[in-house]
């Protein structure tokens, strides 16, 4: 494996640490009186954290100039999707016991579940199209447009948390603040400002050009309109 | 089942815990024979006692933090002795009781009740206490007394969660007088034959088994009989989500989640929630003619 491969493997390994920790706590009987709730909460927490981490890549890259960070964005996104999937399956199976009548009612009637479910569903096409093959098939522009769904999912995930808590909203408000900050950092200076074309390397460039992409930013005037 | 005890001896000194457990086996076998009309038929088939550990480490007691584990970690700052309880309002004999005086005065009974939290989990708990009605009768409510208002201690030094405005402090709750006088309604000072742990509301708390858990106010310092329906903390905090009555009702969903089923702590599969938490035979008549969907 080359250096990049090792780094990717390292990111995946780090991403699995919370899951391993959870498994260890489960086997060690350290999940408390309501283990299903504990597993649900922890996997939900880590879904939001990893989603926010994917959204942090671009601002962080711009601030630091570390363009290589972009190479890990899809990996982090897939880790977030994995936690979301575990979270969702725990809810369906362990929490609700596959009682689909109740689950359907939950999704239809409970806004926090509706929004959480929607956020999860929107992540599915992103996970499916995360391969190089799909980037090529869709073409960069369309692929990019599709993957803006991640903003909907991240916002949906935070709202899901905000709407479910009873009384104490400190943690979800903290996540919401991070989300707003990460989105605010994406707002461009107005196009009439000095630099009409800002330096950016996006995932498209990374994905379609693979290893060719180095530190040199790609100028893409068509990408000026940001969500 | 109902076990009367000599009033002058702290209950913790009576039976050692291992014996206590064997006694429960014995009494469990006789539960059917002993079942009294007003005391719930418990433990019913498939309803095991929740473990002491779960009862004392999974608590909603925001005065010590909002995580379920917070109360067991932080409630050591509460000083349950000396403790006085002021009984006042529309009564002929207002009095400030020392809590031990109350505990000595009213014979302790063990009552095994279901506890159903509004968050759709539940437990089965062997409480130790006495009917609130006994105390209320002794202070002689006047004809103006229509409701009973309860107040929790307000002391951010002892209850550090009160330093944050998660809820308006102090915590207050209330019952209609007939609910308060109902024989199922208890003032509790112990569980599993031991003095009540701080995280469970030491030294004295209310237990109203047919209502959601938040009605069963903890660490009570004041009981006041009043003419008008008193304000209650959660209904002030979120009036569309929590009503004054808050009877356990599978047909009235919380606006944000279903109340049809519940997870019994220690069990994997959810069970169906029963109207009035399974105490409908004893309490449904209190609400005859009321629309419990509206007055939730």
Task: Report a brief summary of the structure.
Chain A is mainly α and 227 residues long. Helix content of chain A is 70%, strand content 0%.
Give a written overview of the molecule.
The complex is a heterodimer of chains A (227) and B (296). Chain A has helices at residues 3-27, 35-64, 73-95, 100-109, 111-128, 132-138, 140-147, 149-164, 170-184, 203-209. By secondary structure, chain A is an all-alpha fold. Chain B has 296 residues and is an alpha+beta fold. Chain B has a single domain (6-287), classed as Alpha-Beta Complex (Sulfite Oxidase, Chain A, domain 2), CATH 3.90.420. In chain B, a hairpin with a 6-residue loop joins strand 11 and strand 12. The two termini of chain B are 30 Å apart. Mean pLDDT of chain B is 89; it is low at 26-41. The chains are: A mainly alpha (227), B alpha+beta (296).
Question: How much beta of chain A, percentage-wise?
Answer: under 5%
CATH topology (fold) name of chain B? Sulfite Oxidase, Chain A, domain 2
> What structural class results from the helix and strand content of chain B?
alpha+beta
Give a short account of the largest sheet of chain A.
Answer: none
- Class inferred from helices and paired strands of chain A: mainly alpha
Features:
heterodimer; A: 227 residues; mainly alpha; 70% helix; globular; disordered C terminus; B: 296 residues; alpha+beta; Sulfite Oxidase, Chain A, domain 2; seven-stranded mixed beta sheet; 9 helices; 22% strand
């Amino acid at each position: 494996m080359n250096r990049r491969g090792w780094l990717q493997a390292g990111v995946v390994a780090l991403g699995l640490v919370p899951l391993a920790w959870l498994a260890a706590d489960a086997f060690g009987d350290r999940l408390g009186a309501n283990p299903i709730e504990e597993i649900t909460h922890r996997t939900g927490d880590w879904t939001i954290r990893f989603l926010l981490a994917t959204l942090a890549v671009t601002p962080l890259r711009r601030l630091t100039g570390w363009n290589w960070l972009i190479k890990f964005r899809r990996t982090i996104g897939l880790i977030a999707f994995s936690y979301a999937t575990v979270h969702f399956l725990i809810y369906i199976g362990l929490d609700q016991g596959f009682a689909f009548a109740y689950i359907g009612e939950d999704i239809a009637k409970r806004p926090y579940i509706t929004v959480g479910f929607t956020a999860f569903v929107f992540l599915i096409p992103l996970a499916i199209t995360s391969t190089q093959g799909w980037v090529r098939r869709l073409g960069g522009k369309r692929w990019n447009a599709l993957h803006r769904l991640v903003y909907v999912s991240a916002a949906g995930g935070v709202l899901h948390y905000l709407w479910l808590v009873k009384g104490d909203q400190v943690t979800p408000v903290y996540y919401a603040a991070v989300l707003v900050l990460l989105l605010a950092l994406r707002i461009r200076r107005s196009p009439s400002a000095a630099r009409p074309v800002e330096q950016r390397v996006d995932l498209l460039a990374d994905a379609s050009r693979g290893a060719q992409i180095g530190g040199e930013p790609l100028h893409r005037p068509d990408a000026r309109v940001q969500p | 089942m109902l076990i009367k005890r000599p009033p002058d001896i702290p209950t913790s000194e009576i039976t050692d815990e291992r014996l206590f457990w064997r006694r429960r086996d014995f009494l469990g076998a006789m539960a059917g024979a002993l079942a009294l009309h007003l005391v719930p038929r418990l433990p019913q088939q498939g309803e095991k006692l929740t473990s002491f550990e779960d009862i004392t480490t999974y608590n909603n007691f925001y005065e010590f933090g909002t995580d379920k584990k917070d109360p067991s970690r932080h409630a050591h700052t509460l000083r349950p002795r000396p403790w006085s309880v002021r009984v006042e309002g529309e009564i002929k004999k207002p009095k400030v009781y020392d809590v031990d005086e109350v505990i000595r005065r009213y014979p302790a009974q063990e009552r095994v009740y279901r506890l159903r939290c509004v968050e759709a989990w539940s437990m089965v708990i062997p409480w130790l206490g006495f009917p609130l009605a006994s105390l209320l009768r002794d202070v002689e409510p006047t004809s103006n007394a229509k409701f009973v208002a309860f107040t929790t201690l307000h002391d951010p030094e002892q209850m550090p969660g009160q330093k944050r405005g998660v809820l308006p402090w102090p915590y207050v709750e209330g019952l209609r007088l007939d609910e308060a006088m109902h024989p199922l309604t208890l003032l509790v000072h112990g569980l599993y034959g031991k003095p009540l742990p701080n995280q469970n509301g030491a030294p004295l708390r209310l237990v109203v088994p047919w209502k959601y858990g938040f009605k069963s106010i903890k660490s009570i310092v004041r009981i006041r009989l009043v003419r008008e329906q008193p304000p209650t903390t959660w209904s002030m905090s979120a009036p569309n989500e929590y009503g004054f009555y808050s009877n356990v009702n599978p047909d009235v969903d919380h606006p944000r989640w279903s109340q049809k089923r519940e997870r019994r702590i220690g069990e994997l599969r959810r069970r169906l929630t029963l109207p009035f938490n399974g105490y409908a035979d004893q309490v449904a008549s209190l609400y005859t003619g009321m629309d419990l969907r509206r007055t939730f």
